[in-house]
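Per reviewer request, we include the raw input and output of the structure prediction for the construct analysed in the revised manuscript.
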Amino acid sequence: MKKGILFIVLFFPVILSAQENNVTYKHRVGINAGFTTGLGFTYAYWPDKLGVQLSFLPVSSDRLNFFSAALTSYYTFCQRKYIKTFWFLGNHVVSDTKTTEYNLGIGPGLEVGKRVVYSLRGGFGFFDVTNSFNILP
């Protein structure tokens, strides 16, 4: 009987904390590389079904001035413990010393992970929208 009480006293808090560890992370930082979702350092806020991501990369030297900024919106349509599927709409402005392009993208995406998250997106890209309008899958 004493061993049973000792077992409950020692392991009951561990069982409770394991059950309550269903935390979702609203704020994210990372690195992004996408034609329509931006290049560079990324901050994302994704509290529930709707989310937004900001990507930014300025590079300046004697020979090159490069700038990338993007704002991407997300809509989650299925979320499990370690997998999330979503739709995205990406807006990306890319500028270097000679040209400036505005790219749009829309499509589905998949995320895997909890604390460290890997995200894969695909879909349609509308490249250089302001000048020569090109659509590529």
